[in-house]
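Why should sequence recovery work at all? Because a backbone constrains its sequence more than one might expect. Tight turns favour small or flexible residues, buried strands favour hydrophobic ones, and helices have their own preferences. The token representation captures these environments compactly. In the example below, the structure is given first.
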């Protein structure tokens, strides 16, 4: 009945008063707390084991737990560039407690064994946590039990069922998160370098397979030896990447300025529509100063519902003061791959959940964007690239898409990369208004070394590296051989050592870009003489042959659902009827 996460230090004065009241009113609970405190503050602990709770939304830690996992957050933003993380999950707190018991309290040796959520094994957010484990423990074994509905869809690599290890005949699904067993040992005589071993368990019999593995001769032979390094973010999972992968530059190293995340709406689709006219009508009403709030709300056009961090009435008042309707703000919007809609853009704070004004500055006719992602949220996430000339959504790629503009407008001053962002677009001269290549100094030196002209003056040269990256990113061999590396960080791209290979690769990338760009006609694909192998795609034919009559045979007659209506008559009687939705 005590909290294992608290009570490791002597209580403060106010806590002593609460404890005295507890002992007087509930003597049995007082005795139990005394026994727990004797273990926590008076006994040497050599083994910590258990199945800690998994709950990422357990609320703010109690006052006694403040700072418990801060040590796992130190340097995430500054040293690793990781800005989104959730390290307050209960199982992480229990890992920190176990580490504290074995490594901070005499005799500073012992064993930790937990079965828990497996996200800490390789997810970027846990990199500092893994670093500490490597520093504080000498031998580490990790049994990955998989069974995740999010990362693998509870399927093995062969596509067979992969239940949770907690599945039973009464609860076949078990739990939704993937699990792993960690066994970590700290010796009294420390080793110079920790030994890390990893193995997988898949399928529906993993619990039996796990027990059976304990009986095998040469226990360690069933594990792969891992090599956690800075490059792989100290991953505890065995990684299969091409030997030179971590020597290749990251895609972001080619940029003159940092890429920008896409826009976030979170307004129920009020700012996005397939129908341009319908969207224009909505936004004209929203930005009409003659239309009162009550009259606007009565139109039921959206942007009237309270949402997280969105107060519709306050935001509209601000929009009417700071903005006006402009037709040129109705632009094409890449919502998902091959799904382009219309959106209305405004930078007034609060209308969009995230309006990304720096990205909007680079969305001008003729510019194009290469999209990529920082990491993958699950296995087999797919190609880490996309290409579009449109403004883009933050979730066009999962977990988040960032847009790299191929060209920059307004003569951004090139400063050291760590000082640059898209907000640093400062004109050298107010009258200068011409695009230049979004290429870092290293990328420019690479192109110059191969004999290419100034990329600011030659549009084809400015796009070579980006089209080459697109071609590499869609290569099945690249994706298969480097899947683990691509999953953990920005994609790394090998650069050819001669101009002929670069040009050939960029040409392939240009073809991919044309296929991904749904806004521009592509000869042989969507315009001109269609390629023979594509002529039958999406062509409607009659079963058995013959001509189709579009006036009668394309009618939609199916019913998607029925609703149950009850109509009441004045006499209190009614009739029930069904009607198609």
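From this structural description, the recovered sequence reads:
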């Amino acid at each position: 009945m005590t909290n294992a996460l608290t009570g490791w230090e002597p209580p403060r004065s106010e806590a002593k008063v609460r404890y005295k009241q507890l002992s007087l009113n509930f003597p049995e609970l007082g005795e139990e707390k005394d026994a727990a405190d004797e273990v926590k503050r008076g006994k040497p602990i050599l083994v910590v084991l258990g199945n800690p709770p998994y709950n990422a939304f357990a609320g703010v830690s109690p006052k006694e737990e403040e700072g418990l996992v801060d040590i796992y957050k130190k340097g995430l933003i500054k040293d690793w560039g990781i800005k989104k993380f959730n390290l307050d999950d209960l199982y992480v707190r229990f890992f920190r407690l176990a580490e504290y018991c074995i490594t901070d309290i005499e005799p500073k040796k012992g064993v930790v064994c937990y079965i828990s959520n497996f996200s800490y094994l390789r997810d970027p957010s846990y990199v500092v946590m893994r670093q500490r484990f490597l520093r504080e423990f000498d031998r580490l074994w990790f049994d990955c039990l998989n069974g995740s509905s999010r990362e693998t869809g509870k399927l093995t690599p062969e596509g067979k069922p992969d239940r949770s290890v907690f599945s039973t005949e009464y609860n076949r699904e078990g739990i939704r998160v993937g699990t792993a067993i960690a066994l970590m040992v700290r010796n009294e005589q420390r080793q110079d370098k920790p030994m890390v071993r990893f193995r997988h368990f898949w399928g529906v019999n993993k619990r039996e397979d796990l027990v059976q593995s304990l009986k095998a001769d040469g226990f360690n032979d069933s594990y792969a030896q891992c090599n956690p390094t800075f490059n792989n973010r100290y991953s505890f999972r065995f990684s299969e990447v091409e030997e030179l992968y971590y020597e290749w530059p990251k895609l972001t190293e080619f940029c003159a300025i940092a890429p920008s995340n896409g826009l976030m709406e979170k307004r129920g689709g009020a700012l996005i529509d397939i129908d341009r006219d319908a969207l224009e009508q909505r936004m004209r009403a929203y930005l009409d100063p003659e239309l009162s709030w009550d009259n606007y709300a009565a139109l039921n056009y959206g942007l009237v519902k309270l949402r997280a961090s969105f107060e519709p009435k306050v935001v509209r008042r601000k929009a009417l003061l700071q903005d006006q309707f402009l037709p040129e703000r109705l632009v094409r919007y890449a919502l998902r791959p091959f799904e382009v809609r219309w959106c209305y853009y405004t930078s007034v704070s609060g209308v969009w959940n995230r309006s990304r004004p720096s990205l909007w500055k680079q969305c001008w006719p003729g510019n194009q964007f290469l999209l990529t992602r920082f990491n993958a949220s699950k296995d087999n996430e797919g190609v880490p690239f996309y290409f579009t000339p449109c403004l883009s959504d933050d979730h066009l790629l999962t977990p988040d898409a960032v847009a790299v503009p191929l060209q920059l407008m307004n003569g951004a001053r090139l400063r050291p990369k760590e000082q640059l962002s898209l907000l640093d677009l400062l004109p050298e001269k107010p009258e200068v208004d011409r695009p230049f290549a979004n290429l870092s100094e290293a990328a420019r030196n690479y192109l110059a070394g191969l004999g290419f002209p100034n990329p600011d003056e030659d549009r084809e040269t400015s796009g070579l590296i980006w089209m080459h990256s697109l071609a590499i990113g869609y290569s099945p061999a690249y994706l298969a051989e480097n899947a683990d590396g691509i999953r953990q960080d920005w994609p790394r791209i090998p650069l050819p050592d001669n101009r002929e290979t670069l040009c050939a690769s960029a040409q392939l990338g240009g073809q991919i870009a044309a296929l991904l760009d749904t806004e521009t006609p592509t000869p042989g694909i969507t315009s001109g003489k269609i390629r023979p192998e594509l002529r039958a795609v999406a062509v409607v034919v009659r079963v058995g042959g013959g001509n189709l009559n579009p006036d009668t045979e394309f009618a939609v007659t199916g019913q998607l659902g029925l609703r149950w209506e009850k109509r009441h008559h004045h006499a209190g009687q009614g009739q029930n009827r069904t009607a198609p939705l």
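A few observations help interpret the result. The chain is about 25% helix and 15% strand.
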